[in-house]
Amino acid sequence: MTGETGTRELADGRPGYRLVRREDVELAEALPGRSEGLTACRLVDGTLGSTHMALTLVSLVAGHVDEHVHSFETSFYVLEGEPVLYLEGRGVRLRPAACGSIPVGAPHAFRCEERALWIEMAAPRPRVDRSDTFFLGRAPESEAIPLDARDPRNHNLFLLTDGEMDLDRLKSGQAMGAPTVSGSMATAVLAYSGIAVKMLVDQRLDAQLHTMFMVDYQPGACANPHDHPFEESYYMLDGEVDVVANGDRYTLRPGDAFWTGTGCVHAFYETRGGRVRWLETSAPGPPARHSYRHERDWDYLAERLASDTSVGAT
Questions:
Q1: Nearest C-alpha neighbor of 169 from the set 203, 198, 201
Q2: Helix, strand, or coil here: 306?
Q3: Which domain covers residue 241, as residue numbers?
Q4: pLDDT band at 180 (very low <50, low <70, confident <90, very high)
Q5: pLDDT digits (tens, 9 = 90+) for 26-68
Q6: Do residues 210 and 132 share a domain?
């Protein structure tokens, strides 16, 4: 692999990582007979190296997706437009930066009057023959209401509003009547090494099998080489960042997608003095402990052991 779209395998034959360039993304008709105006491009799935997930770029233009249920779990993040999601019969009009989880077995459908574009994540990975998707009938046509993330009835949905990842802004107190979701540890931003992480979809939204979150890099930020006991995908939204996976280095730009398999050692570096943002997913859901394995920590142990003359002494 030389930097173009494709999958690179580890030495033992397991898929290591996959890079999809924006210019190689091609939307094609999806769910014929069960939808109208729907096109999609599968960025990651079982046929492309993944064991645990599928990541799809979805477009819906003046059309619908019939009501259906999955035996897998999905989530979404709206990039453009205002699609209407009918979840368990209730219509909600979404907008850019709206996201949410669709639990296993939850009836849902989509409609869109104009054009909408979103990223869709599925875990575990859907079956190639689609025997894990069951259609129930036509998409509802009832009136939809705008998404209100504070309404408890929208407990599967969330909206990432401007400033929610601005660390300077978060230092100030929130007014009691502020039109945002109540601040708490569940909705907090995790900040470290010039990196801000905001959880979007997890158990808080009833997602049990995967997570979706936003990552924001300050100029010069970096995540040192590490791997995970799960897979990750990354869809670039703003800025440029260098990714190193299994020793290979690429520059990711808006519209590019990247995926790392379990055990793939990877790192991210901001080297251009700008802000970077991407949408990230993981599957299976990370464990409570040991979700990261940083190379430098274990290298440090190896150095300590090598300098300790008592180690191995009888």
A1: 198
A2: helix
A3: 187-307
A4: low
A5: 999 999 999 999 999 999 999 888 999 999 999 999 999 999 9
A6: no
